[in-house]
Amino acid sequence: MSNQAVDAKALDRYECGACGYVYEPAKGDNKHDIAAGTPFEELPPTWRCPVCGARAKVFQNIGPVGSASGFKANFGYGLGVNTLTPTQKNLLIFGGLGLGFLFFISLYGLQ
Ligand SMILES: [Zn+2]
Which parts of the chain fold into alpha helices (H)? Predict the structure, then answer.
């Protein structure tokens, strides 16, 4: 039982906070002679990101392969917000112009 738990945790991938490189325990790190199957926690203290050289402490646990559905859902939510934002901006801009135009017309009509 405990071995299964350790194995599950050993599959956790870690993403470099500096460059986005993802350390996958299943693949290891050829550049630093890290054998496939080495958990991130068992990397040597001197291990650095093979892409940008960042220290291991800037890496974030992003979970094992196949558990990214939550992250993907958040990503989709972010895209949804982003696609709505231009519309909201247009509404604000044209709404503002419309109000300004009405204000201008009302002033003009008073004179
Ligand atoms: Zn990096």
Answer: 2-10, 69-110
